[in-house]
């Protein structure tokens, strides 16, 4: 099996018989679903300060509005890939859109935090179904030689959703209320489901892969979901109980025990949720490591910046959305180009360049305070977006391109899992650190005290905590760069044979 840098020359009869016009029609259809999942989440992020004010939430509790959905996505991404193998991609994709619509309806009508979180969990289930099937369809209908281009265009769609969320969401919050974001997301979701019902042809989007008969790996699903939940609960409650509390220490110990059991179980059963032999290919393993570390470094930006811009600098939600707009705009544009470039020139240099740029901008973010001028904030957002676009699509191409086409489905689902897990952990760590700094200074973690006097003790504590978050997570950026270097090494002959053998063994996660 050739490495991605050498180019993938293997052919796929399914994609060769799929017309070019239908490829792009299928892409556009699932792009609506991808767009909806992102615009809903990014719009919620910019509305989070208003949600916190309306429901009287402190920072740590408010973070669960984001964490609840992301954690749900992480817990069910791989099972949804398996479910699409059994039930068919069209059914699972349409069901995902309808579940999303239900979730945002619950969120829009919620009057308290428990109901809002329930809506976010339901929305997360639907988003996981949509995300898994969308990437599987994209990698099926496009030939291997155009993989980078297809994934780059997918990055453009994700970036477009990330652009629209803060801008549209900010305007909706200022004109109506934060509930309007969920209403708008529901409308787009319903439209997308009607289009998908007409356009998606199961036989054409599945390619050569037959519908797999079998059962879901319930022990694997339950243990992986439980492990992630225990980890995030331990991270977010450290300040409440104390990091030396038996509850917190026990939580981390339990997580590692559950993880060990999960890995052993997945290695032993005949139809696992994820085939662990995929990690024998070093390029895939290093690309996955770099992906996790890169998103861990970037996650706090999307969570903390709306609070900084609204609570500390006193800007409105719509103004905050416009200020952060250069980030997703450049991520979308450069991401689409970088995917094509990585097809032609290889992935390593683009990943390294993107991570270096983001390392620099995060260093700048760690100096932001109450008096930082807009002339510095806007260029930093612009460069940060360029960095995001440069490394994200090539990184995914490096990982998916390292394995055989028969493993594209499980690889794509796992990469989405890695991204969401990193984002969940980043938000949890950011909330815990900032709240911890505020509590240690005796001002509590109530955000109302920050907005009432941004230059006072509470505002200063928030800014100090934000600085610590960005500086500590720069370490993950350095490790992500190292992973990019290692992923760029040529695979050994033994590793290539291991990757090729995966093509002959049906896996639970295969969705191609």
Describe the structure in your own words.
This protein has 512 residues and is an all-alpha fold. The chain has two domains: 17-205 and 271-502, Growth Hormone, Chain: A; 218-270. It has helices spanning 13-17, 20-55, 59-62, 64-87, 89-108, 113-141, 147-175, 179-199, 202-206, 218-236, 238-241, 246-268, 282-312, 317-324, 326-345, 348-365, 374-400, 408-440, 447-452, 457-487, 493-502. The protein is globular and about 60 Å long. The relative contact order is 0.16. Mean pLDDT is 81; it is low at 1-17 and 491-512.
Break the fold down into its secondary structure elements and pairings:
Layout: H1 13-17, H2 20-55, H3 59-62, H4 64-87, H5 89-108, H6 113-141, H7 147-175, H8 179-199, H9 202-206, H10 218-236, H11 238-241, H12 246-268, H13 282-312, H14 317-324, H15 326-345, H16 348-365, H17 374-400, H18 408-440, H19 447-452, H20 457-487, H21 493-502
Helix pairs in contact: 2-6, 2-7, 2-8, 2-13, 4-5, 4-6, 4-10, 4-18, 5-6, 5-8, 6-18, 7-14, 7-15, 7-17, 10-12, 10-18, 13-14, 13-16, 13-17, 13-18, 13-20, 15-17, 16-17, 16-20, 18-20
What key attributes describe this structure?
0% strand, 512 residues, globular, disordered C terminus, disordered N terminus, single chain, 2 domains
What share of residues is helical? over 70%
Average predicted local confidence, pLDDT = 81
Order of SSEs, N→C?
HHHHHHHHHHHHHHHHHHHHH
**Would you give the CATH topology of the largest domain?**
Growth Hormone, Chain: A
Strand content: under 5%
CATH superfamily of the largest domain: MFS general substrate transporter like domains
- Describe the sheet with the most strands: none
Count all strands and give the number. Answer: 0
